């Protein structure tokens, strides 16, 4: 069982390992989402392309936002380099979007990565996820102009980066702020 990272608004935020049974709703939700947007083969490639062990301490972790003991949002991180955590498998339950859960998951990922000594976060998302692109931009992530384009300059995926705050600078309630959620393309991860 993972350590409890905090409790806000009736939600529990905790750090876990990929093998934790509480991660299953996140992985199932991601598989369904990726399959619907990119097809079965691409979904399988994305979800099996990184070994689960890469998301384990000391270099990685999984963050779950839970309501009543069930994951409603979350994500994972792993070591990209000594200074940079790569965020992957970022997810919000489709039935719970536009409630600030994506922001909570991202804040929890940033906090967990900073506590492990990372100074920067890197993440990528696909072209069929405009709501994710909008959320990352709103959260202060910078789109890379050097990564994610083909030789002709067409965008094939979106790569983002952000400097992480030191653990003492973290917001006490990552869901606070009164934002109604990021909306783009008729859906939202937030």
TrEMBL record:
Keywords annotated in UniProt: Acyltransferase, Transferase
Residues making up the signal peptide according to the UniProt record: none
Database matches in PROSITE patterns: GNAT
Chain spans, region Disordered: 170-190
Domain N-acetyltransferase: 11-167
Superkingdom of the organism of origin: Bacteria
Stretches with biased composition (Gly residues): 175-184
Name listed for the protein in its UniProt record: GNAT family N-acetyltransferase
Database matches in InterPro entries: Acyl_CoA_acyltransferase (IPR016181), Bact_Acetyltransf (IPR050832), GNAT_dom (IPR000182)
């Amino acid at each position: 069982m993972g350590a409890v990272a905090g409790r806000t608004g009736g939600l529990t935020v905790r750090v876990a390992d990929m093998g934790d049974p509480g991660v299953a709703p996140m992985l199932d939700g991601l598989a369904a989402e990726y399959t619907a947007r990119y097809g079965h083969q691409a979904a399988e490639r994305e979800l099996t392309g990184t070994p689960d062990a890469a998301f384990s301490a000391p270099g990685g972790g999984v963050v779950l936002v839970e309501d009543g003991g069930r994951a409603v949002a979350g994500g994972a991180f792993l070591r990209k380099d000594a200074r940079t955590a790569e965020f992957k498998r970022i997810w919000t339950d489709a039935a719970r979007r536009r409630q600030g859960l994506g922001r909570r998951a991202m804040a929890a990922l940033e906090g967990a990565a900073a506590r492990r000594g990372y100074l920067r976060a890197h993440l990528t998302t696909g072209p069929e996820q405009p709501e994710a692109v909008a959320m990352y931009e709103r959260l202060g992530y910078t789109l890379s102009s050097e990564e994610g384009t083909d030789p002709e300059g067409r965008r094939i995926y979106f790569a983002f980066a952000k400097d992480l705050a030191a653990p003492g600078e973290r917001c006490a309630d990552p869901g606070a702020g009164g934002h109604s959620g990021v909306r783009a393309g008729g859906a939202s991860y937030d």
